[in-house]
Amino acid sequence: MQNFIQKGGTVVGTAPYAVSSGGGALIGRRFGVATDTYALSAVGEFLTEGVIDIAKDTSTFADGANVYWDNTNKVATSLTGSAYVEIGTAALVLIDGTVALGGASGDATVRVLLTPSSHPLIMSVDLDPTVQQAKTVTLTAANIIAMNGAPVSILPAPAAGQLIIVDAILVELKPTATAFTGGGAVTFVYHGTAVTPHTGTVTAAQVIATTQKEIYLGPNTSAAIDLTTAVALGLDITNATAAFAAGTGVAFVTVWYSIVTLG
Q1: Per DSSP, what are the bridge partners of residue 169?
Q2: Which of 105, 134, 139, 216 counts the most CB atoms within 10 A of its CB?
Q3: Phi and psi (nearest 5°) for 198?
């Protein structure tokens, strides 16, 4: 193929800020790890594929959990929302059965499998709205317990005049030693409203179960949903009826969606 340039494991770019070798850098919409130390605006090579150890904040990660980039503090994080960019998944389990750093709040680094194909999904407002998109968000035990009063952001708000249309949702519940108690139905709402883009719910019984569950909320089949007040709003997960208590484990929420620009 005459127009092939390179495999793309490393890409040349202009450092958006001073970065040390092994440090992360967000260059436009592309995340890379510096292969050398570069000053602001210096041209250098950045790794975009592979498994790396990268500095993190006090976040904790389970193996396979999404890892995000905090471009303000220049560290990996589990925080989600429009201010953070997905860079890959935690790769903590090693072949000898030991575990890499990243699972404890005091760990200085987290081991990450970089996934460049996920980067554009964070900047979804710039994509072709006719293309279905997907995003996965990790809910910690603290998120699950608190989301009754503090809904967790799943998708950031699109631009003015745009609307998020949810096609389907998958909720993976992974309990550990202590089962959750109490709670109520888990639903999805547009931020700051009671308007739901999907009629499906995850029951409290499914959340407090002691075995792993995969709950798929397929395409809506209900009557029309009025989304007039949902324009330019992000998507949250909540359980407004009653809070969960105690419990350990995580949940992974994957949303398939489209963004429509209104006329």
Answers
A1: 217, 255
A2: 139
A3: -145, 135
